[in-house]
Amino acid sequence: MSTTARKKVLLMGKSGSGKTSMRSVIFSNYSARDTKRLGATIDVEQSAVRFLGSLVLNLWDCGGQNNFVDNYLTAQKDTIFANVAVLIYVFDITSTEWEEDLRYFEDILTALRENSADAGVWILVNKMDLLDKEDPKRTRYEERRADVIRVDERIAQKSLGDGEDRGRLRCFPTSIWDESLYKAWSSVIHTLIPNIGLITSHLTYLRDVCLAVEAVVFEAETFLVIAKSGSPLDSPPSEFDKQENRGGASVLDPQRFEKISEIIKGFRKTCQRTGEQFLGFESKFDECTVVLEPMTRNTFILIVSVDPRVETALMQYNIVNAQIHLSEFAGKIVLDRKCGLCRNNKELRYDAPGDLDPSVRAWDDPGPYG
To answer: Which InterPro entries does the record match to this protein (predicted)?
Structure first.
């Protein structure tokens, strides 16, 4: 059985909406300023991006000129919209042709539902930085979001029978000039990661062992957030677990992960220009201790503790001991044996062959001679 999950992701939207710019910022280490020299996408540009080790995104960046879109909906319909895991559709908040933009989106969403009914849909309303000064309450964004949701509901009523489900639609305001872009793309990636529940559970265990507030895993190249300990990603404070509440996570910046991504990518580019290699960092402040270290070949882990007794050496020691677990979950879609932690924790439920057979050891059990 293959150990790699391949997910097809469509990146679509009208020409000039910012699709290629955001792709270049996220996946090619472009700065927002660098994107000014990019040209329009011609037809479809495909690229493969590996996350963790068990997930490969097949990203289809589809040109948004009218003749290309018309071709996607006719001659290439079965090719473009088949076997899609996620559609990321980008709108330009400054567009003066909103009704036409909506009609194109409705045609594309209809084709998607006909060919990939379970695909998730992310709507990125882009270039928010151009409008925020004159519309600080983001009234226009809320209006655009409501229009998009109405289109989705209308298509659902036409194409789905009673009791049927469809991929959930999510909407984000974005700009390539701030951390909002990382927040939106992290949301996409998080839902596609195999074994995400197990990764979250083990991160929570690691967090507790380190007497930390949270443990967060970032993808090494893009520095998008993959998973975090405790409550699910983007949870409101009302859903925080005991450790998060005790550590004061509710008062932390809700956009801290995305800001960290932006800062680290910028610092890493500086290191590259000076010929230095970025390996991570550690620091002990008055109010917290922070460690950022490589976790697996494709990830970094950030652990934050507010306990004054905690030293960075302790956190690094626990990270080293946890690396084998994260590597196991990251490298496989199907796990053939459980680790000792999973066997002894009833909350970490998943099926594995031989789990009830005492002669089958946990994969992290060194045995009597280990």
So the answer is: Gtr1_RagA (IPR006762), P-loop_NTPase (IPR027417), RagA/B (IPR039397)
